[in-house]
Write a structure and sequence with these properties.
COMT-like; about 240 residues; transferase; S-adenosylmethionine-dependent methyltransferase activity; Arc Repressor Mutant, subunit A; Rossmann fold; three-stranded antiparallel beta sheet; O-methyltransferase domain-containing protein; four-stranded parallel beta sheet
């Protein structure tokens, strides 16, 4: 997982994609955006591992030259700018140190209860995001990426469910990806994207969508209907 995280952070899928075909580790290294020359031996080992795992397609020239690495079905999902077919941001969230290091506290949670991430870092992930701008950006982009996949299914399977609505608020809607796609398909709806202030400050502008910051446990904007996606599971029945 961490080798693949490294490849995503170095934008190796994008580099291979931009070349239009398989390339060598040396060509990958020369295309990495870095203030100093990348360490080619690390890249060779990373690509050899990911090639073995079929994340990239490895080709070994018969003349004994450098192996060539191309995209596979799996790594094409990691190319940026591929609209809804992109999983890189989700992978970076799931492999962020806040998420990975929390697993070291699983046995403690079994014995004592509680949250692993709070035991590891003293805060819930929402509070960590409010204090750490880099994690906030990574987390919001990952959630927006996830929302794109779900949005397609909602719009395809719930074709007439939004016809009678004049307004809709997405509670804990992140940076507004889901509500913006709904409004795009149903332009008569006034969309409201509602989330915590540190999330809303990073939200882009969408036609037909108003971003509102606040706390859903205190108040929620008025609308004909509320939309909650992957929200309530974060809290106990009592809190909800």
């Amino acid at each position: 997982s961490l080798a693949l995280k490294c490849a995503i952070e170095l934008r190796i899928p994008d580099i291979i994609h931009s070349h239009g075909g398989p390339i060598t580790s040396s060509q990958i290294a020369s295309s990495i955006d870095s203030p100093s020359s990348p360490e080619i031996s690390y890249i060779e080992r990373i690509m050899r591992l990911l090639g073995h795992k079929n994340i990239f397609a490895a080709q070994h020239p018969s003349d004994g030259g450098e192996p060539l690495y191309g995209l596979t079905h799996s790594s094409r999902w990691l190319v940026t700018g591929s609209d809804s077919n992109q999983l890189g941001p989700v992978f970076l969230v799931e492999n962020h140190p806040y998420m990975v290091n929390s697993w070291h506290f699983l046995s403690q949670c079994v014995k004592e209860g509680g949250s692993a991430i709070e035991k590891a870092f003293g805060d819930a992930y929402i509070d960590l995001a409010s204090k750490d701008q880099q994690f906030n950006k990574i987390f919001n982009e990952g959630m927006a990426c996830n929302a794109k996949f779900l949005t397609r299914e909602i719009l395809a399977g719930y074709k007439h469910g939004f016809d009678s609505l004049k307004s809709l608020v997405d509670v804990a809607g992140g940076i507004g990806g889901l509500i913006s796609e709904i409004v795009k398909s149903y332009p008569h709806i006034k969309g409201i994207n509602f989330d915590l202030p540190h999330v809303i400050t990073t939200a882009p502008v969408y036609d037909g969508v108003t971003h509102v910051s606040g706390d859903m446990f205190h108040t929620i904007p008025n609308a004909d209907a509320l939309l909650l996606k992957w929200v309530l599971h974060n809290w106990s029945d009592e809190a909800c």
